Request: fold
Amino acid sequence: MQNVTGQVVEGDNFFDRTREMAQLWRGLETDNLLLLAPRRVGKTSVLRRMKADADAHGFTAVFVDVSDCADELRFVQRLYAAILEHHGVGDRLWNGIKESWLGKTVSRVKKAGGAGFSIEFESDDIKWARMGEELADALEPLEWQTLIQVDELPVFALKLLNRPDDTDQGRIREFLYWLRRLRLQYPKIRWMLAGSIGLDTVASRLNIADSINDLRIETLGAFDTPTAHALLQRLAGAYGIELDLAVREHAIARVGWPVPYYLQLIFDKLRECQEPGTEDVDRAVDTLLDPSHKGLFDYWRQRLRDELGRPDAEYAAALLHPASRAAEGVRAAIFKLALTGAIADAGAREDKVRFLLDVLQNDGYLVEEAGRWRFRSPLLREYWRRRVAPPEAGDE
Reply:
């Protein structure tokens, strides 16, 4: 097992998630899924492992990342490319569509390697919605059940939302309702939509929550403590390092929220030591929080802007600032005070705080315990306190 700190983990580098994947497979027996998970939790790695295991669960699975798609046509083309290139689907699927309207829109078809297809379309003026429906029409009669995994769908949806030619937000609404119709019309196709930005929050922001109300929502979080210990032990064994119980406990305590990525970052520093001790764990954490590593956490600030837009992103940050200054957390009354200057009406302010706390809790920023709200990740709290929150009065 290799210690992977930047790439998607696959094969022997993938660790555990047995319970989570079993729950996802159970959900797919009857429903389409929306998988919500903060960045770096391991969402894409789980999708990849499920794709590899799909045959055993009666599915032919296709994985597609749409984060870089510029518009709806590119989204649908990405689906085509992924499905037609699948070694078990491409030939039979193409035989079903090559004489259809869809087949006539393809200007060139070329064998790619031993099985899949590479396709090019005649122009960019093709009706993308019909293309998607024709694809589903071709998949539905096949004897196997198809699982389409779409990663980073919310990132693509936000691109539509932020297009200058969509001032009335019509394009993103049309796309999300079209995708819902596709899911409902073709029951043999299962969809697994995922993203590190909450699609549920984006839909709620646009008042179109019903565009995703057919999806079963599942979440992916951190490891529990025994699994975190097991990961560190497996890594230590792979690299011939001794990590005693006290060191592992200290590493997990400093991470606080034992996401595999953060544990592997800590281990990456510990493997440089011949006999790592608890003081080496502290040095590793300090290194991760220094200015040269701020890119490890800057995403959490950017995500608020992407997901919530203005002014809600600023309001959410205003709630996080006081929470970052108190390791034990703060009471909700502090959050209401933080928005007093921005929202004068007490009722509207209370509604806004409630909405934002739901988002911040679901997205992995905050957790409520014993009536207090604190950062779920001590590492993220310390980053926020040092790099984002304005200094308090009296600070130098």
Q: What stands out?
A: Residues 129 and 283 are 54 Å apart (CA to CA). Strands lie at 33-36, 59-65, 106-112, 116-121, 145-151, 189-195, 216-219, 366-369, 372-375. The mean pLDDT is 87. Residues 304-387 form a domain with the Arc Repressor Mutant, subunit A fold (CATH 1.10.10).
